[in-house]
Design brief:
heterodimer, A: mainly beta, B: mainly beta, seven-stranded mixed beta sheet, four-stranded antiparallel beta sheet, globular
Chain lengths: 116, 108
């Protein structure tokens, strides 16, 4: 069974870059779409973006200028970088994968707090 | 972007009862690309339904999805104790993908 695990700093300072990695186990991750999603406390889930098996990326327009999603299939990992973060971006960040745009498998999520 | 509105916010029911959850879209969802997820505390969200009405692998047949266009429904025919959770709808037909605010199904 495919399992995903997010990892990275739980605390990031305002204006700095948030960096997270998702490690996938239980199967090869080639030919998938790799996705990042977040949920701030008390707010709804927000799609951050994805990268497909050709390397093509798709980002939420609200975040596009600050986001980079990349994948390393040799390590079964993909990553998220979000620059110039603010306190409003404190959230649980989820990684997910799917055969298409729809995320089929999700990680449990990791809380990232943006605070000085 | 497509805004999804879920109702009710909370559903208080007893095991064995029927649960009906609604998801309404601000505009038509292309090709019924509407999914439902279940999320329990401390667990990864689990996909239940995709394409508005297709059950994901391993999902019990007490879960069913219906609808098209802008109105979608998730029905749990008879609630089992493990079904008490938060449910989200998501549209994946248009970018950016968007989610509903969730419906919490709690034990009455």
């Amino acid at each position: 069974q495919v399992q995903l695990q997010e990892s990275g700093p739980g605390l990031v300072k305002p204006s700095e870059t948030l960096s997270l990695t998702c490690t996938v186990s239980g199967g090869a991750i080639s030919n998938y779409y790799w996705t990042w999603i977040r949920q701030p406390p008390g707010k709804r889930l927000e799609w951050i973006g994805n990268i497909d098996y050709t390397g093509s990326t798709n980002y939420n327009p609200s975040l596009k200028s600050r986001v980079t999603i990349s994948v390393d299939t040799s390590k079964n990992q993909f990553s998220l970088k979000l620059g110039s973060v603010t306190a409003a971006e404190t959230a649980v960040y989820y990684c997910a994968i799917g055969a298409g745009w729809l995320p089929d498998y999700w990680g449990q999520g990791t809380l990232v707090t943006v605070s000085s | 972007e497509i805004v999804l509105t879920q109702s009710p916010g909370t559903l208080s029911l007893s095991p064995g009862e029927r649960a009906t959850l609604s998801c309404r879209a601000s505009q038509s969802v292309r090709s019924s690309y509407l999914a439902w997820y279940q999320r329990k505390p401390g667990q990864a969200p689990r996909i239940l339904i995709y394409g508005a009405s297709s059950r994901a692998t391993g999902i019990p047949d007490r879960f069913s999805g219906s609808g098209s266009g802008t109105d979608f429904t998730l029905t749990i025919s008879r609630l089992e104790p493990e079904d008490f959770a938060v449910y989200y709808c998501q549209q994946y037909g248009s970018s950016p993908l968007t989610f509903g605010g969730g419906t919490k199904v709690e034990i009455k």
